């Protein structure tokens, strides 16, 4: 099923993207003594990536559930 | 500060609550209502990932290394992207194979050997035990902190005073109660899961509560905390990474990878995510809800950690910040809640991990060991106890480990070492899922090297630190080998210990796993499992069945067997489940279902004992019952096994096969049994050099006949004998099995039936068999003792089998050929319709001789009384050979010898040994053909014997087949003879009938003529020929019926015969017509005809006719004489009428002449009379002339009414005179009528005058006209005196008159006229009343 194979690749892409985003060298970009609204950039970034990943997982899961 | 009692009570109360929840969960499951079959529960159950280490250690880590701790939770979030295909695949495989642990998974995938599972189990056990100890330590530490704020070194206190010990016992109890209350083949513990989920929620609640307190109670939000940390030079580094080895990018990467592996392969995680999963769709929810839970629980880690630091708590106590902060800030009950949260985390981890690992222990260590020691039967009843013991043991190991071994190691490190330990399972597990070429040896090598290096590089340094090993090991390396230093393996330095250990262990693990896998070949079982594991989502194909069980126990047996391992209830459930799966009743099971059942039983046992043990146990059980696997395709089995045979064996097999091939070739080349036997014996002699061999075949009576031999004297042929049951021959035939006798003298008492030459040394007897029959024995003998080897035996067996098949085929072929031959003979007999009796019997006899392979034959007919036989035919050979010249033809039955027995006994008689004495035999005369064998049969017609047929001198014995052939053939012959006789009788009968019919037709006094539909004359009898002047032969089949009738006559006949008015449809009776004579004259005939029908279809017409010429002639004669009579009468009448006036005239004339002058007056008077009389005579003569000179009327259509009116005018004077009235009633619509006006006027005048004359006293004359059908009528009536009846008939005769002065010609003339008009005249009269005359005239000519 091409649609399923495509979705599978989308899952894999999400995982790889997430893995790259929380590791060197991307992490280097945010490894600064800067704060946004009082919250350190790095903390904000990691939590941001985290929440984005959760949202992506939620969306992917939902789309699969609705498809089944 | 909280009192010990309160904390203990709270903890105990909380525990009780957990027990209650778990108990409720189990109860619900027992009732079939799963409380955990819910995606949210599944997602929260995964939170068992968060242990005391999360609860306390994260804060500690955050306080010392900053955001590094987040990677432990980010990793699982990232890997969640793979769950839909990775975790689901793992789940599917485990569900399909009933796998409950990782070691089982590996064992099954890599070929079911116990070693790999054991290795994995030991590795996991070593990694997890300290981890369990850590949980116990955290509970006891936090408890102590809560009650006394003191941190007592555990070694210092005795065990019985150590809180952790009691905690350990309590947790063991919890684990046993909810993880091992009974043996569950599914390893599902719903109560436990429910408790874990509840704990997860408490954890979240406690942690969030504390986080809120710190963030918003003690500080004014995240902003403040972070800003203050950022401003603090001491702590601002915590907000960055890569500031040192403790938070380097490498470490972040390693931690992420560890977390990604740990989330699947920590025993508790595998158990929760895979084993306790109820529905793989729950993964959809878990992939986002579980990361969300992790996010929430970590949201306050940094605020708490940094808050603690800002509150001035020492970083060294960072692991206990979560308790210390609420205690320090005066929120003891919050501290209690936090304690309960931590307790939850620990308890969940310990319970689940201990259950999971104890299952691994049981399945992968205890059972394989028990089987190795052959103790499985003794151990199986105690499995539950063993499992409970394992749980207790694990927890106690953890406790003692931490109590005695691990004190110096920090909390967080134990967790990470465990992570790294289970990480070693990743290559083998992932390879199992995705790499078909991964082999068992690769997995073992990878696991072993991984565990080894992990221990060496990661664990050993801690042991050195604990003083177990000399410090030099770390600084100088073992034996001074610096490149082997555990912390700088192969000289790699600059990495933190964890990254270092992770790198080396994973490098060696993956390297050896892949390398060894590539260099080794998987076993067939492994290959099959690899296919199933890797392709678990591919559609199941039904593979060709390659193996089957020789014998298989029933489902009941297997259910009882299962009960021993999983208990009666579960066994029953499993049985039901299997029956649902196969959906075929047990009675209809084939090999495939039995294989499936075996697999199912093995999998079911595997859930309790693990696959390695299950396989051994199930196989052992089956083989103890005598069941073993065999190849379905024996042929291929042979081929594959032959590959393993030695060259010598192969050569021998090739030779054997070539001989078998040669034998097969010879057997296929003929269908004649003697040829077949010669072929096989030839092969034995020529190819194998067998000294003596022979073939004996059984006949229908169970006698063995020697049919062929080699190396034996020729006279043994024809040897016949009945095999005795206890002799070798009898045994060989009876079993039927190949018998090999190495020394015949040892079995001397069982050699009966065998030849002397055959029993000199060794011999082999092979039964010649087909699937169902034993046909004979093939023997081979050697004068050398022990000559025949096992190979010989096998060879003879297959040769005899081939021979059996060939003999049977030949027999069948022969029977078929005979039947065909006989059918052909019978068919040819049936075609001999014109043959004489002698020809038929000769032919049948020759065929009988041929079919029975005889030399001579005879046929004799029986008389009706069955007393005398009359010889009908001898076969040609018999005639040629017989020297007796005048053979008798008649044989009275009582004088016949053996050949009469067939009649006397009324059954076929076979005499195969004619020379032998026989009471019935009376001998034959000298010169008779010498008889060796004889067979004769009675031929029956119903119960009556009609003939005897016999054949003789066949080369072989006569048997039932010959009887059958002869009987069937002779019956066929007799039937043919009978048929021919019947036909002859029928023909004579028919001919007689035809002759009679011929006679009938031709002697008939009527002419008979019949024609077909085309009009061709088919029957024409002699009378008809006579009447019409033809010869029958010139008419029959050549002339058309049309030519026999006058023109248009046939159409008329045809119309009338189809009309029902002439004697019914299809019939015409007494019709007068004319037929054409040969000379052209028309012959009047009286014809009766009838249509001929066949199946309601008209096929022709038959007519009978009488000649009417004679009759017509006679009628004319009669008419002429009648006319002459009338003429005579007329002449008399006329002469009379003339005579009277003439006498008057003569008399008066003479008187006057005598005296013409005298008395003139008187003379005058007399002359007047003469004149009157002369006028009367003149009138009379005119009438006579009219009648005689009647002319044909000249008809013209005219108005009849006008004619009548005109005529009445003439009548008026006489009517007035007689005072008669006229009444006219003329039909004004009368059509024109053709008539002659002069003639018709005369008719009306005549009739009207008669009427007027009849009414002397007056009356009424009425004239009416009218129309009736196609005729017009005129009625003339009077009221006169009428006509007396006696004269009525004569009134139309000429010269008849009832009146004194009538000429008697009026009505005669009238009738003549009307008849000439083709009309009718009728008179109706009553005396004294009147007369009515009616004239009918046609309105159309």
Write up what this structure looks like.
The complex is a heterodimer of chains A (68) and B (1341). Chain A is mainly alpha-helical and 68 residues long. Helices cover 76% and strands 6% of the residues of chain A. Chain A has helices at 2-21, 26-30, 41-67; strands spanning 35-36, 39-40. In chain A, strands 1-2 form a two-stranded antiparallel ribbon. In chain A, a hairpin with a 2-residue loop joins strand 1 and strand 2. In chain A, helix 1 packs antiparallel against helix 3 (41-67). The longest helix of chain A has 27 residues, at 41-67. Chain A is elongated and about 45 Å long. The model of chain A has no long low-confidence stretch (mean pLDDT 84). Chain B has 1341 residues and is an alpha+beta fold. Chain B is 57% helix and 13% strand. Chain B has 45 helices and 26 strands. Chain B has a 6-stranded antiparallel sheet with strand order 5-4-3-8-7-6. Chain B has a 6-stranded antiparallel sheet with strand order 11-10-9-14-13-12. In chain B, strands 16-15-19-18-17 form a 5-stranded antiparallel sheet. In chain B, helix 6 (102-109) runs antiparallel to helix 7. The longest helix of chain B has 46 residues, at 1109-1154. The radius of gyration of chain B is 70 Å and the shape is elongated. The N and C termini of chain B lie far apart (160 Å). In chain B, 41% of the residues are buried. The chains are: A mainly alpha (68), B alpha+beta (1341). Chains A and B meet through helix 1, strand 2 and helix 3 of A and helix 4, helix 10, helix 11 and helix 13 of B.
Q: Give the largest chain-chain interface (CB within 8 Å).
A: A-B, 39 and 38 residues
Number of DSSP E strands of chain B: 26
The rounded Rg of chain A comes to 15 Å
Number of helices of chain B: 45
- Mean of pLDDT of chain A: 84
Q: Approximately how much beta-strand content do the residues of chain B carry?
A: 5-15%
